[in-house]
Design brief:
Number of helices: 13
Oligomer: single chain
Distance between the termini: 82 Å
CATH superfamily of the largest domain: Tetracycline Repressor, domain 2
Order of helices and strands: HHHHHHHHHHHHH
Structural class: mainly alpha
Helix content: 55-70%
Number of domains: 2
Largest sheet: none
CATH topology of the largest domain: Tetracycline Repressor, domain 2
Strand content: under 5%
Length: 239
């Protein structure tokens, strides 16, 4: 019997192969749920003890399993950190895709994205704090992989800013590269001061940040930014 006939007989032709997890092992729904649980616990442990001071034993104790069982799902503590970064970057890119799909002006797109981005940080503040503070703990290929994803969404954010500026005819004397870095600095600063038990809601903070970011990077007042109208007054002054 030929190999092809044997495969047909066993029913393997056309059957999708099981996906593999980060450590190369076969991925199943049960394994995926368990890994997600490990990530959630790891985030809590890293937040409480700090990444450098936390150990795989700490995570195993929190879950209530032997440390050795964690290695069935992950290769190392750094593997956990990479997973946190990778998932975060994927969610950032999803936010960008959602903003690009909106049927709005480019200025409103910038404002909407800034609001969604801030809200993600505030709703995931523990993960965001790890993302901001523990970047330098990644090494080798893991660091290069995450750096590549960061450059990808950085370029996307740059495009959102540039298109908003072009829409209102704003020509800054400062390279728009600095506008992007300003936005990233503002967002990445949230984990430094935000606490979940604060008096102001994440929605209120996000709305305020979005307005500040939009007005600052486009150097405009609220009237000039209404509905993405062209800034004829600024162009006239410059002319």
């Amino acid at each position: 019997m030929s190999k092809e006939k044997a495969k047909k007989k066993s029913g393997r032709i056309g059957r999708p192969r099981a996906k593999k997890g980060p450590n190369g092992k076969r991925e199943t729904p049960q394994r995926q749920r368990r890994r997600e649980e490990i990530y959630e616990v790891a985030i809590a442990v890293f937040t409480r003890k700090g990444y450098a001071s936390a150990s795989m034993q700490d995570i195993a104790d929190e879950i209530g399993v032997l440390k050795g069982s964690l290695y069935y799902y992950l290769d190392s503590k750094e593997d956990l950190l990479e997973g946190i970064f990778t998932q975060s970057d994927k969610e950032f890119l999803a936010l960008i895709e959602e903003s690009l799909a909106l049927d709005v002006s480019e200025v409103e797109r910038l404002r909407s994205f800034a609001r969604s981005w801030c809200l993600w940080y505030l709703n995931n503040i523990e993960r965001a704090r790890i993302y901001v503070n523990d970047w330098d703990q990644l090494t080798g290929k893991r660091r290069k992989k995450v750096a590549l994803m960061r450059r990808e969404y950085g370029a996307q954010v740059q495009g959102i800013i540039d298109r908003a500026a072009a829409e209102i005819g704003f020509e800054s004397e400062v390279d728009s590269h600095w506008a992007r870095l300003f936005v990233f600095s503002a967002i990445n600063g949230l984990p430094m001061w935000y606490r979940r038990n604060g008096a102001t809601s994440p929605e209120e903070i996000s709305a305020a940040y979005a307005e500040l970011i939009t007005r600052t990077v486009l150097c405009s007042s609220s009237d000039e930014l209404a509905d993405g109208k062209s800034n004829t007054r600024r162009r006239a002054k410059r002319g």
